[in-house]
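[INFO] parsing input record for LacI family transcriptional regulator
[DEBUG] input buffer:
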Amino acid sequence: MSTLEPGRGTHVVTMRDVAKAAGVSVATVSNVINDKPGARIGDEARQRVHNAVAELAYRPNMLAKTLSQGTSRFIGLVADAIATTPFAGQIIHGAQDEAWKNGYVLLVANTDGNQAAEDEAIAMMLEHQVQGILYSTWYHREITVPPMLQQTDAVLVDCFASGSGLASVVPDEEQGGRSATEGLLAAGHRRIAFINTTTPSPAQSGRLAGYRAALDAAGIDFDESLVFLATPEQEGGFVSTTDIIASGASAVFCHNDRVAMGLYDGLREKGLRIPEDMAVMGFDNQDVIAAHLRPPLSTVALPHYELGAAGVRMLLGLESSSGAVPTLIACPPILRHSI
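[DEBUG] output buffer:
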């Protein structure tokens, strides 16, 4: 890639541009520009940085000054896909609001699950002397902690790593499953089916445990024949329709809103009405689905905004956390007109 000419185009020259032109790291550029005491940089490398600065007409900014002091008012957030996931993007929103409230700015890197991009993002944030990094996934699962994350304070958001010692904040899947089932019980239903996912995950086991706990508290025996496994997509709900009807259930708790949307289609095709003939409860509160189905879908919300906000509070030491077990955030029920 050719170097930029002074004043050419509208591109703002960054330290990364200077580092590439000089053949050194961003940290080296920062140390040279700020004349950092004790930095071990050879004369040749130092001269290359000065030459690149002159050639590119680079102008140090406030970030460079911040780096020279060894501290910053930045918090990093490295995500695998949440920036492009409509409902999970609320994690960024919550983290950003909480960071801003406490005088920090959020630096966000979306890696699309690419390992090389993830390593580069974490390295960039370490170079920017972030106060710490939130590491987030777009769905709740156990992860292997990237080794570079151990170089700074870090909190896992919507994921966890057993034995890592890192604090984590995740949805309370069991409580969410219990709340979903309690909503159907409160509407007078006693024979309640559950469409669960085929994919092993904290959501699969937690929501089933919550379903069973709610039935038990209501004095209803658990009936394994009322638990149906389906892919966690619209098609999974649609193909489950015939078996749901045959089960004699009067209400269905669906693993997520997409499954519920498919069940809506299947029930409509069979000439059945919601909620008169079958009550339906979803999970996720994916607004583009739940609020716009007819009738609007009752569901349980994944607390993405609060996950992001709580992650920042933990990182800043404003909220206690444990590296031994994840901190659980409640999943609130959103009652509409499908039950």
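[INFO] Residues 1-9 have pLDDT under 50 and may be disordered.
[INFO] shutting down worker
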